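Re: weekly structure request thread

Next one in the queue (439 aa):
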Amino acid sequence: MLMPTPVIMIIHNPKSVAQYATLLDRTGAKVHAVTSFEEANELLSFLHPDLILLAAQMEEGDGRIYCQQIRATLTHPRPVLVLLHASEDVNERINSFRYGADDVLGENIDRSELAIRVLAHLRRRQEELCNPLTQMPGPIMIRRMLEQLLVQDKPWAALSIDLNNLRVYNETYGDLAGDQLIKALGAVCSSCVSDSDFAGHIEADDFFIITSPERRIGIAETINRQFNEISRRFYPPEVTSRGYLVSTGRGGIRRRVPLISIAIGIVSSTSRRYQSYVDVLTASRDNRYLAKREPDCVWVEDTGIKPQVHREHAARSTILVVEPDGAMACLLQEILSLEGYSVEVTSSANDALDKARDMHPDLILLESNLADRRMDGWGLCKTIKETEEFQRCWVVMVTSSPDQSLALESGADLYMPKPFDMPSLLSEVSLLLRSRHKR
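Done, posted below.
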């Protein structure tokens, strides 16, 4: 897998700096050599070296003091500080560590040993900058990778990847189970990239891949397919066959939540010019948020696949209220009408079915305890859900029954226990109707 090129800064006297630069160039790192602390400070204002190799005795001052200054001024991730000291005195070397050096080497050190030691420090630093959960490159290495790409002429594409409905999964099965799911996604991302690609883990379930424009769609398809196959193993069989979890919110409101899926946002250097790594991350995340509006695993990019953005329809949403209490039915009809919905009211199951066939409501607000002896609200809900012409209709059960299994068996999309406050009901109804394009 591709990794960002390490950056080394050498601060040494003019007579020796070129020799060290030539030596460390062979390590594959990008080397910047300067001959004074003033030049080093100018570079450090925009350069983020992984390692600084500096002389203890400089013409303008003590290299140990400069180590101390770097530790005091540079924030995480601070570069590794390797001091070259001419003295063979053990106490002098120990004192250099106290000033802040991470390693102290003799000026007469074998050149091959110096290169190997520098590589060992860079390897250790790379490990420290990996995400502790997945051991994939973390946010700092992702930033380095993007910064290096932005100054090259080579075309690239980036994929921002995360999980839908992870919060509900964690609430149901615990954070440790959620971590295992995140590790599985990390393994899928790593398996999908080639030696010329890069895969990193920003935080939580937020992953990032850099590849070529030609490979971007193939990688997105592979991640979707593989994760869909793997993720089902993280649920009990009855949940997998049911196809959803039940989330309990404030006030005991329960709703169906789809199983874990993936959202991917894609950007490419061939579509527009990006000014900074922040620009790339923001654009890819924006596309990923558009993808989250889709019910299944999906990717959205700035060109090619058009993002399906929800737009309000001119026609008003229709709601059928099935409520045996006349006063409550009138109150619901008035309040929902004031919210801009087209509302019909009935109190019996048979009449509700006839009205539903005529008006094809977007949502049915249904009381479980109906006056109709032949069919209660649970039975009506089940009938509606099993009827093909009502497949795009949301059903909200309003009931004083605490039996959650009845709501699940009937197929209700939302379960609101009585008593409830009207603002909560309106909020839930609005949320469902805004997302009806997913059905």
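The mean pLDDT is 89. The first helix runs from residue 14 to 25.
Next request, please.
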